[in-house]
Amino acid sequence: MSYFVNEKGYYGDFGGAYIPEMLYPNVEELRQNYLKIIDDADFQKEFHQLLKDYVGRPSPLYLAKRLSKKYNANIFLKREDLNHTGAHKINNTIGQILLAERLGKKRIIAETGAGQHGVATATVCALRGLECVVYMGEIDIERQAPNVARMKMLGAKVVPATSGSKTLKDATNEAMRDWINNPVDTHYIIGSVVGPHPYPDMVAIFQSIISEETKKQLIEQTGNDQPDYVLACVGGGSNAMGMFYHFIDDENVKLIAVEAAGKGVDSGFSAATTTLGKEGVLHGSRSILMQTHDGQVVEPHSVSAGLDYPGIGPQHAHLFKTGRGKYVSITDDESLQAGLLLTQMEGIIPAIESAHALAYLEKMTFTGAENVVICLSGRGDKDMDTYMKYFGL
Amino acid sequence: MNRIKTLFKEKKDILSIYYTAGYPNLGDTVAIAEELERCGADLLEIGFPYSDPVADGPVIQASSKQALDNGMDLKLLFEQLKDLRKTVSIPVLLMGYVNPMLQFGVENFCKACAEVGVDGCIVPDLPMVEYEDLYAPIFEANGISNIFLVTPQTSPDRIRKIDGLSNGFIYLLSSSATTGQHLNVSEDTEAYFSRIEALKLNNPTIIGFGISSRETFDKACKYAKGAIVGSAFVKSLKADDLQLSIQSFMKTFRP
Ligand SMILES: Cc1ncc(COP(=O)(O)O)c(C=O)c1O
To answer: What EC number(s) is this enzyme filed under (chain B) (predicted)?
Structure first.
């Protein structure tokens, strides 16, 4: 079975490009060119040079000794939090800005939830001197204030999305509307493995550097490039897809994707898409999404803005449906506790998104021999307000 | 011959009006259709609301949200339209996004349309390939026309393909835009409309998005068989005086 995209833009039953005609020329231009551009030697050289000298890659694979002892397994953290701008998001924005330049685009738009993708986009726009507009839900603007300030300082215009739940889904709607109204000179840098084909594949390719490096690092550190488990949190699913990518065809490596249960999957305040969702179309692709009987998108909830999204990327839907990946969920409380635990045991303050993946360790049992890799997708600086309020610090 | 074909054969300067089902009040759907026909509308596009209408501007976003809050869904809409053809004779299209239609079931949707006398639908985010591969036979079996959009950026090859799959008319967007912008006929737009005319398509065209006044309507009718008014009409609807608000809006178009 193939877990990757086919020539029609589908992963099994999922994917495709469900977009209005207004977006067709842009998306088609991308579809026809993305692989050609990415495979070009010049592009590869520039991409990898920037990842090394500007982002600071390779990111370390760190054996967390005290955590390992506590859980009775070898716990490795893939340190995407150490990237420039503080999360995995920049791997994708570097790739897409180079691609946008090669397509002759002059203006960049993006959506953002936690603000990490917005910051990563504003950063590469500053780096290359391109105009940047970031759409962000009004609620997220409040809970991620430091990132809003960073984007502004980087020269981006931050536009509040005031419709619907005023979070990531609505920011995505606004970005798509912007693209419809600016069909010629604008490139939309989507921040996750969602959206119409070829976005899920393109973003996965740019993020796949995470598992590419991890394999090499595992060989160096353990002599075996196949861990027993790979874990990552899933909002739209880009850090998870990057972490899974080169392990997907290694069927003995167990892939665990951690969604946000919010206040609990049955509480009505959750973002546990695979548990609560059904098949349907959101933001241009057929996938699994949280919706009513009538196909209206349900407003999600998570303490972490980056996971507060009612869908998942189509490749995740495929991994879920085929059983190749195990999809689980972690509550707000569990994730915050896991964030505090990592901070106090390893001296690393994780993003609350990443803390969801860490929290799942509590639910696993080990014999002491297993190698476990967790994608530490981002750092917790942006979440200090939430942590401080929750723990009364 | 079906209602859409007859209309395009017999009339020019066709005035099509879009409004959202279940807005301003849940039960207004059919009353608005009746009043619009009385006031001289030639074609109706009834929107079935969706929570995430990416092709729409603020006015239709707001009417969709209100309609959903009022309790509108496809099941109720088809119930409301049960006796449509007792009082409304002009062609009626349903317009909305693909996800509610998929959840209802495409076959159920087309059957329900045929049963109540809906003539066709416009689903902007239903891709042409999926329509062609999966759904066209279902639409055709039920006699439902699928209306496609074309923008100034749509290539001539693709327009021809769309023409081949269309059975009714083609919806020309004056520019690539979300709904509710203002039509601005520049030299580029004129060149685009002329380009379309020169293609000598099998299906007639009407122009939509940005038609808000008599003036823009007349302009659009120079280049196509008619035009569609959406946001401007929705904005003018008054919940407490529906009939009067429709009459006064329609007066400028059909004095
Ligand atoms: C640190 C971090 N991790 C994870 C995510 C979730 O996104 P994705 O599922 O695409 O990796 C975000 C999104 O903002 C993030 O900032």
So the answer is: 4.2.1.20
Taking the model in full, what pTM does it have?
0.97
Mind listing the pLDDT tens digit for each residue in A321-366?
999 999 999 999 999 999 999 999 999 999 999 999 999 999 999 9
Residues A302/A308, Cβ–Cβ less than 8 Å: yes
Interface test with A, best of B20, B51, B70, B192 (most A CBs within 10 A): B51
Cβ atoms of B19 and B234 closer than 8 Å = yes
Q: Is B45 a catalytic residue?
A: yes
For residue A158, what are the contacts with CB-CB under 8 A and spacing of at least 6? Answer: A118, A134, A136, A141, A148, A151, A152
Phi and psi at residue A8, to the nearest 5°: -90, 0
Q: Looking at the partner chain, which of B54, B99, B104 has a beta carbon nearest the beta carbon of A173?
A: B54
A306 Cα to the center of ligand 1, angstroms: 5
Decide: A306 in ligand 1 pocket, CB within 6 A: yes
Phi, psi dihedral angles at A60 (to 5 degrees): -65, 150
pLDDT digits (tens, 9 = 90+) for B66-117: 999 999 999 999 999 999 999 999 999 999 999 999 999 999 999 999 999 9
Contact of A300 with A290, CB cutoff 8 Å: yes
At residue A230, the 3 state secondary structure works out as: strand
- CA-based nearest residue to A74, from A230, A210, A215: A230
What pLDDT does residue B180 have?
83
Shared domain check, A286 and A239: yes
Question: A249: helix, coil or strand?
Answer: coil
Asked if A90 and A84 touch (Cβ cutoff 8 Å), the reply is yes
Q: Which helix (H) or strand (E) holds A109?
A: strand A107-112
Cβ separation of B158 and A173 shorter than 8 Å?
no
Question: Could you identify the atom of ligand 1 that is nearest to the CA of residue A87?
Answer: 1
Question: Tokens representing B204?
Answer: 């007639």
Residue type, B252: T
Full strand arrangement of the beta sheet holding A186-188: A157-161, A131-137, A107-112, A186-188
ipTM of the complex, rounded to two decimals: 0.94
Checking if the pLDDT of B1 tops 80, the result is no
Task: Assign residue A176 the CATH number of its domain.
Answer: 3.40.50.1100
Q: Domain limits at A126? A: 23-50+89-203
To which residue do tokens 């604008």 refer? A186
Q: Choose the final residue of a domain: A161, A178, A203.
A: A203
